[in-house]
């Protein structure tokens, strides 16, 4: 069924469309005579994210006419490495199709505007949910469901040779339907040098441009080591601890500071001994002592509780915006 949205209501008049308007990107812009920007829904660093209408899909009556557009405008104040990385990762991630990973459809440019076309999601991030949760934590059975879904997405990506490298609450999206999506894979890193071919500079770009969140990164990543699956395991274990305890395991310290201080996480009383051992193994600051795969972490955390959680897992105080 065709969407009942009139593009003219957003200032789009095909007969007057001769190029991009002056000024910063805003609702009413049309990219490549196809993507009508409807509303800004996010921003960060040098990029903006818009809810947009795919006018070609709308004309065809497709249900996927609403998309998300992440864009960046080239200019003197924009690091060209960011733009190169955005194009590079979009090409890789178009084939990363999984029910718990946000879809990346395409990457294109028009004039100075470089943009990524993605699946549009309705709901909120895990960080927003935690802020509104009692004591900023979630019930253990809800956490277990999140661990399963996020773990499934990460394991799939690792199987394709991709490490997320920036796993944090802001990059977990909870749809109003109850689905869990891992987002912002556009800064993901290839695992092995053999996979990179001509992309050896990806890690250097990420470190130099600050595309890693220190509060959730492993000590090895903070020391500049090449990414591996165990780095995502560490961030995943830290995220699990945060969801259960309402605080990060090493307080205000990042992992490197915790390593230097020989810090240890406080016990979480809401989990059993087997789950606690799994969390501690995932949080090992020495990567030689850490759980090596996400699948091993998920299996260890879930093994003590095998009952089905069903789809109605979201707490009553979750309300999508």
Overview features:
alpha+beta; Transferase(Phosphotransferase), domain 1; six-stranded antiparallel β-sheet; 11 helices; 11 strands
What's the arrangement of secondary structure elements?
Layout: E1 30-31, E2 35-44, E3 47-54, H1 55-59, E4 66-73, H2 80-93, E5 104-110, E6 113-119, E7 123-125, H3 126-132, H4 140-159, E8 162-163, E9 172-175, E10 180-182, E11 189-190, H5 193-196, H6 202-208, H7 219-222, H8 229-245, H9 255-261, H10 273-282, H11 294-302
Antiparallel strand pairs: 1-2, 2-3, 3-4, 4-6, 5-6, 7-9, 8-11, 9-10
GO molecular function: ATP binding; protein serine/threonine kinase activity
Domain Protein kinase: 35-302
Keywords: Kinase, Transferase
Structural features, described:
The chain has 321 residues and is α+β, with helices and mostly antiparallel strands. It folds into two domains: 23-119, 2-Layer Sandwich (Phosphorylase Kinase, domain 1); 123-302, Orthogonal Bundle (Transferase(Phosphotransferase), domain 1). The protein is built from eleven helices and eleven strands. It has helices spanning 55-59, 80-93, 126-132, 140-159, 193-196, 202-208, 219-222, 229-245, 255-261, 273-282, 294-302; strands at 30-31, 35-44, 47-54, 66-73, 104-110, 113-119, 123-125, 162-163, 172-175, 180-182, 189-190. The protein has a six-stranded antiparallel beta sheet with strand order 1-2-3-4-6-5. The two termini are 25 Å apart. The model is unreliable at 13-18, 192-200 and 307-321 (pLDDT under 50). InterPro entries: Atg1-like, Kinase-like_dom_sf, Prot_kinase_dom, Ser/Thr_kinase_AS. One of its GO terms (molecular function) is protein serine/threonine kinase activity. Keywords: Kinase, Transferase.
């Amino acid at each position: 069924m065709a969407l009942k949205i009139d593009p003219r209501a957003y200032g789009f008049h095909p007969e007057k469309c001769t190029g991009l308007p002056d000024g910063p990107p805003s609702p009413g812009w049309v990219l490549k005579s196809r993507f009508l920007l409807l509303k800004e829904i996010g921003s960060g660093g040098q990029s903006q994210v818009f809810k947009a209408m795919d006018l070609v899909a709308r004309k065809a009556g497709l249900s996927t006419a609403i998309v998300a557009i992440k864009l960046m405008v080239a200019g003197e104040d924009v690091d060209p490495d960011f733009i190169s990385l955005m194009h590079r990762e979009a090409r890789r991630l178009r084939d990363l199709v999984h029910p718990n990973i946000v879809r990346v459809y395409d990457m294109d440019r028009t004039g100075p505007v470089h943009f990524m076309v993605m699946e549009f999601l309705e709901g909120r991030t895990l960080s927003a949910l935690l802020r509104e949760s009692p004591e900023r934590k979630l019930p253990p059975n809800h956490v277990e469901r999140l661990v399963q879904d996020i773990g499934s997405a990460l394991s799939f990506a690792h199987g394709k040779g991709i490490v997320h490298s920036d796993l944090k609450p802001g990059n977990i999206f909870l749809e109003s339907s109850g689905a869990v999506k891992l987002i912002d894979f556009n800064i993901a890193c290839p695992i092995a040098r053999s996979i990179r071919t001509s992309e050896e500079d990806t890690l250097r770009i990420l470190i130099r441009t600050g595309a890693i969140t220190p509060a959730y990164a492993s000590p090895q990543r903070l020391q500049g080591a090449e990414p591996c699956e165990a780095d995502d395991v560490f961030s995943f274990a830290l995220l699990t601890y945060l969801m259960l305890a309402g605080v990060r395991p090493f307080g205000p310290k990042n992992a490197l500071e915790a390593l230097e201080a020989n810090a240890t996480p406080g016990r979480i009383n809401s989990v059993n001994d087997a789950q606690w051992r799994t969390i501690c193994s995932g949080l090992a600051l020495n990567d030689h002592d850490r759980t090596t795969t996400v699948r091993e972490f998920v299996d260890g955390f879930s093994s003590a509780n095998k009952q089905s959680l069903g789809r109605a897992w979201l707490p009553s105080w979750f309300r999508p915006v």
